Amino acid sequence: FLLGLVGVIAVVSDLGLSLTHAKRASEEEDIAEGIGAAIVLKGGLTLAVMLVLNLCPVVGRWSERGMLGTREHLVAYYVLASMFLFRAAGTVATSTFRGRLEVAKISGAQLVSSLAAALAKIGVALGGLGLVALSASYLLEDVVLAAVALLFFRGYSVKWPRRVHLRRYVTFALPVMLTFVMGNLTANGDRVLLGTFWGDAEVGYYLAV
Fold first, then answer.
1. pLDDT (tens digit, 9 = 90+) per residue, 93-149?
2. What does the alpha-carbon distance between residue 139 and residue 81 come to, in Å, rounded to a whole number?
């Protein structure tokens, strides 16, 4: 339920910028300025999303209204919300690799991060460590993915983008923005609806099918 809630709130976390950057990276010989544009735009979106994610429980008084149940739920929510910081860093790198057809770098980063997250989740389950630890295991996947991807990313140069470069990125992303928003809502909205009207257990049963 918390993963779905965070996903719905962060519905504008990408808006097609990863696809745009991959396309630009595949077309341009010198992509330093393109990487800069991706960092600026993705960074701006991420900061806005993080602000909204952190303000929602406060402005909406979720704790008072019982929306997150207990303090443990609230802490787990903030742990999951922080995923988007690391996901943004990893997305710029992996989109660059995808555009340059460096598939091995993407596969390597995903393999290491998936293995780390799987081991962490198994440890949490066996140790009965609770909701916050489980949320941290999900966060770990994005942290490791970003770390490994940035390690592979070291050979790329970055330049501050000109305004025309930023405009090209936004213009290219415009036709697919709504598609990304709807895809995000479709992927996460069902969990939030089930959790709100039925309960966390039903969300678990639903996702296990």
1. 999 999 999 999 999 999 999 999 999 999 999 998 888 899 999 999 999 999 999
2. 9
Question: Residue 72: pLDDT band by 50, 70, 90 thresholds?
Answer: confident
DSSP 100-154: TT-HHHHHHHHHHHHHHHHHHHHHHHHHT--HHHHHHHHHHHHHHHHHHHHHHGG
Query: Long-range CB contacts (< 8 A, 24+ apart) of 106-115?
Result: 106/149, 108/148, 108/152, 109/145, 109/148, 109/149, 109/152, 110/145, 112/144, 112/145, 112/148, 113/141, 113/142, 113/144, 113/145, 113/148, 114/141
Report field, pTM of the whole predicted structure over 0.85: no
